[in-house]
Amino acid sequence: MQHLADHSKSRSMASCLGGCATWVPFLMLFVWFTCIPNATAGIHHQSIKDDNRMVIVLEQFGSTSRGHLDLELSNVEWSNAGDNAPLSLNSMGFFTVTEDDWLQVIREYEQKSIKCILESRAVQLLFTFAKFSGTGPYHYNHTYPFPRANRYLVMFNNCLGLRVSMSVRASMYNMEGHTKDYLSEGQTQLPLLFFCFFWVYVALAGIWTYVCIKQKITAHRIHILMGILVALKAFYMFSEAEDKFYVKKTGTPHGWDVAFYAFSFLKGVMLFVVIVLIGTGWSFLKPYLQGKEKKVLMVVIPLQVLANIATIVIGESGLSDRNWLTWYQLLLLIDVICCCAVLFPIVWSIKHLREAAHTDGKAARNLAKLTLFRQYYIVVVSYIYFTRIVVSVLQTVTSYHYMWVSELARELATLSFYVFTGYKFRPIPHNPYFVLDEEEEEVAVEEMLKDDDFEL
C-alpha cells in the first residue's frame, strides 16, 4: 500500500482547475502536488477527449542538467473557437514549470497581472496551438531539453475553455552518458533498493520456516499465515524492483506492473488479516473468532479489494485523468478505515485479558499476555502513524534529489514491524511473556488494577 508512493502523497492537477477563474484552485493544486507521492516517470500515453479543463497535468519529473522531454501529439482537435480563432489559439498550448515558479504563477494570476498562464514568464512555453494551420486533425512531435536541474510539471493550458481531444505521448528521461534513464532523479536508486529488501525478506522467510519446522509442536495456523505474509512481501518487493528497473531502462514496465498490482493486493489483504487475527488472540488465546471479530474481517477484506482497484486506476490512468483525485481520495479513505478497524480487535483482547485476570486467579500470567498485547497495540499504532504520516511529511520536505530516502524509511519501518511481530509471537514452548514467578502474582494484581482505564 506504500506506493504508493507510493509512495507518497485535483482530478489530477487539471481537474482542480477545470474551468475555474480564481486563484484558489491554483493554490489547492500546489498543496496537492507537494503532498502526493511522486509519480514514476517514463513513457506515458494519455488520451484526452472533449476536455475543457483550464489546466491538465501530464506528468511530473525530476530532471538533471541533462533532462529531456519528448512530446508527441496525434489526432489533435478542438471545438469551434469563434471569430477570434487565429488570435485565441495562442492561449492554448503546452508548458513546463517548476514547483517554485508555480507559486509565482499563482501570485500573478491572483493579482490579475496575467489573464492566461501561458503569458507568465515563470513558465517555459513549449508551443501553442497557433502552430497548427490547415484542417485537422493535427499532429506534432518535438524534443525539448529541460532548462536546468529541477523538478518539473508538464502541463497543458486551455484558457479558452474549448473542448479539446488528442492523444499524448510524453517521454521524460535524463541522459547518463549515451543511456536514457526514464526514472526521475531521486528515484533512480529505487530498483536496487527494492531488490535489496527482496533478499532481506527471502532470508526472513527462510528463518521463519526453519523456526516453525523446529517448533512444529507449538506452531499454530497463525504462524503459517505469518510465513505466507513474509513470502508475499518478498514477491511484492521483487515485482516492484523489476517494475522500476524496466521503467528506468526502457520507460515501460514490460508487464511487471501486473505482477506488482497482484502481489500488492495479496500482501495488503494478508497484512491486515494477520494483524486482526493476532489482535484477537486467534491461536494464542482461543482457537475461534467471535462474531464481532469476524465482522472486522468482513469489512477489511472487501475494503482491501476496493483499495487495490483504486491503486490500479491511479497507477494506470495518470495525472491527466478527470477522476484521478477521486480515486486517490478514495484510496486514502479506505486506508484510514482499515488502519482504524485493525486496532479494535487488539483493544478487545486487552479488555478480555483484564477481565479474566480478576476471575481465574492467574494474574501474573494474564499480566504477561496483557503486556504483550499492549505492546503490540502501541507498535501497530506507531507503524501506521509512521508509514502513513511521517513518510508523507518526508516526501514533502525532502529535496527531489533524495526522494528515495522516504521509500527507504517506509521499508525500514515495515521491516521492523514484521521482525517485532515475528519475534514476540514466535512458536516456542516457553514464551518469556507467558512465564512469570509465582512471587509476582501480587504485584501483577496491583498492576492490573492500576491500568484498568486503558482505552483505544
UniProtKB/TrEMBL annotation:
It is a multi-pass membrane protein. Its main location: membrane. This is Protein GPR107. InterPro entries: CAND6-7_N, GOST_TM, GPR107/GPR108-like. It comes from Adiantum capillus-veneris. Residues 194-431 form the GOST seven transmembrane domain. It comes from the Eukaryota. It is found in: Membrane. One of its GO terms (cellular component) is Golgi apparatus. Keywords: Membrane, Signal, Transmembrane, Transmembrane helix. Residues 47-174 form the CAND6/7 N-terminal domain. The chain crosses the membrane at residues 12-33, 190-210, 222-238, 258-284, 296-315, 327-348, 376-394.
